[in-house]
């Protein structure tokens, strides 16, 4: 064996397989002359005795896949075989493997390490391959080892030239050294083994075999020179890799199966049949409209009608008398069991059996054996577990009782009939013309990656009709206000609505009914808002965090949105124009005096001033707004000055006029003398004579605007006779700068200037009579001062002296000006920093409906209790200068327990917010996770508290009425504990950590019972409601299903998100679960199918926590931007449960 020639990797992949190359000597020995159009197996290079054996089995001519692939395999190429179901792919790789093993340098009865390896996806397929081997090559089948269970082991004493196994069984039964002489590898069903839940195990095995030189050195066998060279060929020096190759390496492992093949096996040949992913001509397909059947039969119960329609199909003459079996496919185990009970017990169909994952393995093997023999007619009710790879030649009829969820499932379902040149029939029960059109469109060929939830094709007629797409979740309510950007709170002049930004949405709130509507169209944080003077249009601008992207401005029809908000909360259809020119950020915007134009200013990287025509949404002209950054733009108010604006920024204040005829701007810079100021906000007086400019240094500048258009200046004719000039300033300076200014002229011709400062100061400056405003030169006095919570960023005027103020602490105030006093009232409040957790009560006495009325959130310095129906704060518990990381409630809701960043656990009474107890030094550092094990009367009996810390410890506490005692401190994690979940009987819990481990703890003996490991930062872990499985998510962007019994990963949803997943929750029946992460998207998943069924876009930053309400009608998400969003679940649960 040590002297055999060098090994070169070969892969054979169909929708299935991968094979490694034989040595050069083997290739030369097995090479045969190939005819141009081979019609016999011997002309492909297959030995005469094998060809005769195939003829004895009734297989005389090779299929198209075999004609294309077998010569390539025997000629020494890496081959990908892609063929239709029933296209003979198993023999495609078995026949050349038999030929190559015949020329193996060591007799097969003395090969104690496998020379060939076949990996497949299920134990049923392992047994099926064994049956094919028995029929085609019984002498090899006797020596082949088939591992169909994870409990089997590989004996070193027994000859093992061929090994057939699932990846998990293979890893359990073998050691790396067992693959030292493996020369052929077949990966059956490669799209699943290399791209699904089997991916990690499969790639680990392939990587092990690629290191054969090292394996042989471990066995003290000297590798040949060619093998050493081959090892060197696999090494890639990053400095010498081309850009294209480097990009392929960068994408490898996180993109498609094809990229993995291109990287690991760059010389692969592809053998693709003509009918790949097409329905075969010999397959008769038909659809049955369930709604039409219900109308004809006058039925109202859809489930009962579906069963009756199925029974009528089964009793059709061409089906009832057929000497063949029928497969009936459903989308879930529950549906399969219900249908089986109907057919077997209610209708007395004795030949009906069921086949799904909940059926015992021995029973499934018996059903497969009966289908393979075909001696009796059978009706098999099954799920998609029966659709993959199984040889069902004797099945001539397939019925889709529930239509396939995606294209791949559809292809594999119909592939269970019309196999090996036979004819078959497919009947699909569909709902309405849309699904019927979807079923019809599948016969035309398509990409396997397209889901039936998306458009199948763009052709005419039925082919262009698709099933329902991923549903978009509707926002029912938002709590919060993003006061980080100035002037993002607007009080409409009619006094009915308050408009502000939160996340990716603009919120319209009816002040009388407290109803909300949402304008959604932005893709990043909204930075500025502007309302037209007539109150019918709203403009909003955003920033783009990704460098090089353009930031849009959206103009909304506010009149339409406010009129229809009573019937629909989502008013995104009110979008009028989407204006895209600015790079990176829209700094500020303003409507002209007559609302004819919209003026926008870009951010620091753009710094462009653009005028937009509001008649058609087209840009009129644009220009750089100055030598340095421009921070604010304001329009004049009177009609004749419709084309005039004033801008301010770093050390400059300028007046601009847009020349519509010549499509250009004319500017005139204000004369500030020796003043050097950064202007952050501007307020223009209603008569357009004065501009009041707030600065970063906290002083207010009064600028006289001389813009008399009747006296044009010869040098700058668009502007007036003199330059705008500085007049005076305020007596005092306002701490942390002036953020916003509002100029108000009352009915008695008195002028007031309201300004908001960064330290929370709301000031009223009494200017005096309007007629004297431009002639005074004495410093402006401050009349009234009020201190608000948070820096003031917005002041907006309604009618009759009514104003609203917003702060960067997410507080909204209302005030009235009465004489010389301002009467302030807090109208809305929320967390102003990242919200870390959310929880609903779970009292058994209150019931699901009452438990859904309240929820709790925690953030920096406080815990808040909210009325879920009204979105109002009920109670606030404050602990200054600390951050609350996690919260939970006892089962009866009598105690709130919370973990803080000072390492303490604090418990509070939910009625009063008073402190109940404190566990000092619960953890050395921050408390990062918390969970309660409590009885129904936690206030009267003892209960347990489990906490996790940044130090990696999990601690169990015994809580009584008078003391808190630590029962155990469990230290196995090496990183922060991010999540803890407790089983229903409180006998065990599971903890997830940033170190990539999840550990199940016995809460009676306080020992570890299981551990799961992965190369990720686990963020959340939760139990399925029946506690048979666990779900995890984390930094690897995967959702992993773990078996609670043995801790094995049984399913992995790859790339469930583009960014790290941070939050997850599951509803009580286990049908749906939800996730959120750094991509700010809320996704609803079907648990069994692993598919996204709904999605919500609203947050502008990461979703930190998500909870489904106990009554399962709403989803609450909390984000890093301080937003609380309540989403409607609608009929999602009922739809997918059925």
UniProtKB/TrEMBL annotation:
GO terms for molecular function: ATP binding; hydrolase activity; nucleic acid binding; RNA helicase activity. WD repeats lie at residues 920-967, 970-1011, 1054-1095, 1096-1129. Its main location: other. PROSITE patterns: HELICASE_ATP_BIND_1, HELICASE_CTER, Q_MOTIF, WD_REPEATS_1, WD_REPEATS_2, WD_REPEATS_REGION. This is Cilia- and flagella-associated protein 52. InterPro entries: DEAD/DEAH_box_helicase_dom, DEAD/DEAH_RhlB, Helicase_ATP-bd, Helicase_C-like, P-loop_NTPase, RNA_helicase_DEAD_Q_motif, WD40/YVTN_repeat-like_dom_sf, WD40_repeat_CS. Belongs to the CFAP52 family. Pfam families: DEAD, Helicase_C, WD40. Residues 305-453 form the Helicase C-terminal domain. Residues 39-67 form the DEAD-box RNA helicase Q domain. A motif (Q motif) lies at residues 39-67. GO terms for cellular component: axoneme; motile cilium. It is found in: Cell projection, Cilium, Flagellum; Cytoplasm. Residues 70-243 form the Helicase ATP-binding domain. The keyword ATP-binding applies. Keywords: ATP-binding, Cell projection, Cilium, Cytoplasm, Flagellum, Helicase, Hydrolase, Nucleotide-binding, Repeat, WD repeat. PANTHER family: CILIA- AND FLAGELLA-ASSOCIATED PROTEIN 52, WD-40 REPEAT PROTEIN.
